[in-house]
Amino acid sequence: MKYLCDWSDYYDPNIPKEERQWTHHQLWSMLTGFNVALNDPYALASSGGTKTVDEMDRIAKQAVKDKLDSLVKECETSIVN
Length: 81
What we know:
Shape: rod-shaped
Oligomer: single chain
Helix content: 55-70%
């Protein structure tokens, strides 16, 4: 509650309401033995946030394409030599 109540010394009005709620939820989870969420949107915001399924699919397809291209190039080089 200390992050949600404006009378608390821990309350910061500069933090958005949603982030204060997230902080409270994380702290409550730690204190009560529940799992802490690892996909914290506020922590991940600095690295571009969480990826969507479409973004992950695009990244995976590009990685496969890059690997296949490098293997084809390696094979072509070994055939020429």
